[in-house]
Amino acid sequence: MRFSLLVVFLIIPFSLSWGQDPCLGGAPFRILHFTKTSEGSFDHNTRNNSRAMFEAIGAANNFTVTDTDQSDIFDQVSNLLPYTVIVFSNTTGSDLLNTTQRAALEAYIAQGGSFIGIHAATDAYRNPSTWPFYNNLVGGIVQSGPSHTSDANYRGTMTHDVPGHPLLEGIEDPWNKEDEYYYWSEDRGGQISPGITSLLTVAKTGDMVFDSARAITWFRQLTGGGRSFYTALGHNNGDYTDASNSFRTLLRNAVCWTSTNSLLLPIQLLSFTARSVEQGNQVDLWISNEGVEELHLEKSRDGAEFQNIRAFRLHEGENKLTYLDQEAVASGDYYYRFSWQEVDGAVAFSPVQVVRIKGSPSLGALTPNPVTHHLRFVPNTAHVGKRYMIRDILGRRIHSGWLDTELVLSTDSWTQGTYLIQVEGQTGQSMMFLVQH
Predict the structure, then answer these.
(1) Taking each helix axis from N to C terminus, what angle separates 47-61 and 246-258, rounded to the nearest 10 degrees?
(2) What's the first-to-final CA gap in the chain, in angstroms?
């Protein structure tokens, strides 16, 4: 017998250019503000002012902030999924997260999460063999000896590399700013990762080779569907306390841009599901289209390397597409995503759907899924008597209790969307998703 985990993402439509700004309306969202510094590493002591800055920005821009300098929130990917963006603010050192926590962050990014790194975020995991995923995510590694201009208040001149980009809205060009400007020379262990797009370039800051004009702020699209933004600015506490400065404007823009899904074409993605059926894995896509000619369905077994398995020609208006992957018969995880070509020729990706095929379900039997009025959950014997909690996609607790041999709940009062069932176990939490229609 085959079992499946059904997950549905509902995604709002975006404009032809850069996408709808979630800071201007819609459902409120959450960001995670992480400020850990490894023992023995340089601590910028900006965490409190950075937190206060993001809280003030969020109060005016439709989001709330969870702040921590403890890494245990990364213990499971389910802890991270409620957050639209994760911010590493002046994080320094090479043991910020353990192996399990690193895997959770990688899974979060693979499932469409976004990332913001500030200043010393490139001073974390400087050995490129330790965690290359992170180096690629943040986009660079600061060099050694010296790492930056000797003057932490060096007055640098920055110019816009992508004029008109929403990340630069309200930022003067040129922008003169006092800061500690990082170096990236590969000869001294630095790097700027391939695939980033430079947003701000600082003019020459001295007489050494590594003082030459260089990128100081950049961004990139992530293959999971999210976005990454990094700025090497933000060494001084004054950057975070001045409510009128351009640094705060830049970070406001960064949150709003990274929290915008990367679906930039004139498509409204109404639903995207992947589930296990008797004949294989069935992938269903429902979109409203205003001019896109073709979408490609891609599959992966490891969540990293994807192969194109089907091309779909689209017509104007609503399109309902179905694909049966009859080769998905072995147990394990199957990852699916859609790709398309943007108006500028770049390739973009949808969030990733995962189907897990096992000999028995991880938690138990949940019917129906999607849910309309009632749900019935029969847990595996190992989970009877365990504490459970049901949360919405924003992480708010909807229901909790202790599992008996059967759980029946009315969902009439639930809003439409995705929900998470979490069950405590001896080795941590297990989870599965359900959808309320």
Answers:
(1) 60
(2) 27
Whether omega for the bond prior to residue 368 falls within 30 degrees of 0, making it cis, is yes
DSSP code per residue over 55-122: HHHHHHHTEEEEEES-GGGGSSHHHHTT-SEEEEES-BBS-SS-HHHHHHHHHHHHTT-EEEEEGGGG
Q: pLDDT (tens digit, 9 = 90+) per residue, 244-270?
A: 899 999 999 999 999 875 444 455 666
Give the domains, in start order, of the chain with CATH numbers: 22-258 (3.40.50.880), 263-357 (2.60.40.10), 364-436 (2.60.40.3080)
Q: Which residue has the tokens 């660079």?
A: 140
Q: Do the Cβ atoms of 200 and 158 come closer than 8 Å?
A: yes
Give the CA distances from residue 350 to residues 80, 244, 338, in Å, rounded to whole numbers and listed in that order.
19, 36, 5
Helix (H, G, I), strand (E, B) or coil at 215: strand
User: Which CA distances in Å does 389 have to 62, 396, 423, 436?
Assistant: 26, 10, 7, 16
For the segment 161-185, the average pLDDT, to the nearest whole number, is 94
In whole angstroms, give the CA distance from residue 258 to residue 278: 39
- Is 0.70 surpassed by the pTM of this model? no
Burial code of 140-165, b = ≥16 C-beta within 10 A, e = fewer? bbbbeeebbbeeeebebebebbeeeb
Contact 229, 259 (CB under 8 A): no
Across 211-220, 280-289, 336-345, least confident range? 336-345
Place of tokens 């993001």: 54
269-282 b/e with 16+ CB inside 10 Å = b? bbbbbbbbeeebbb
Of 421, 434, 320, nearest in space to 372 by CA? 434
**pLDDT number for residue 383:** 82
